[in-house]
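FORM 7B: Structural annotation worksheet

SECTION A. Query
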Amino acid sequence: MGQPMAANLAREGFDVRSYDLKGHGSCKSIREAAQGADALITMLPDADAVREAVLEALPALPAGAVVIDMSSADPASTRALAAALSPKNVSLLDAPVSGAVAKARDGTLAIMAGGSREAFERCTPVLRAMGKRLFHVGPLGAGHAVKALNNYLGAAGTLAGFEALLVARALGLEPKAMLEAINASTGRNSTTERKIPDQVLTGAFASGFKLALMAKDVGIAADLARDLGVETPYLNETLRLWSAAQKRLPAQADHTEMFRFLERLKTPSRAASAPRSNLRRKRRRST
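SECTION B. Predicted structure
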């Protein structure tokens, strides 16, 4: 995601320096990339990676700089990082994105930002170079909270869409005809519109978003619910299934490979699943 986002920033006239552990960046270290920057943008797998990178960059950032974390992380870690930046007069905006690699390439990501209104407005020109729809959703940490809830809904919809496909296939239905009907109806979602036709039916399973990251984001949503004392049985079941798939599938599996996990689940026979009674039925007497 970070590479096309950086390319869009450069295309809009920003002076971009980048660093990546895989050697794809223009600089040899985090500090070299961050030296004197007005804004430091992170696009990393989790909160631990973000904290490590930002604290490494901090000595090179000038007072008044802003860190824009566009990763998917948890709100508590975001607020803790802000506290570490404050003594250096460096502010933080959490601005995770939605739209996957395709929208990162064409600069049409949806960006949900948390932080002060002042920081958001100051960073708007930067964000507009990468995203088409910008949302200021609340104080610091709100962006990551909304992103986690969004990905929970996406994860639940993915499960439902894949299960519907499995049932349709067992019935002998033609998937494309079924999808056309559903996508013209109320059951449509991103799974029926894109994931099934583009990734599952083609056998590609290469959306660019890892299954492990989806499981992580659903876990963040579940942690939020638990900490707030909100009962979420459907969220808990969604997390259970994604966590189970993460254990069964390869570490680098694309999240659309959840279909393969569901496909391999064993369904108990009707006889085996029917409840058995240890009591014999008494014969009714006629009267």
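SECTION C. Observations
The first strand starts at residue 39 and ends at 42. The two ends are 78 Å apart (CA to CA).

SECTION D. Sign-off
Analyst initials: ____
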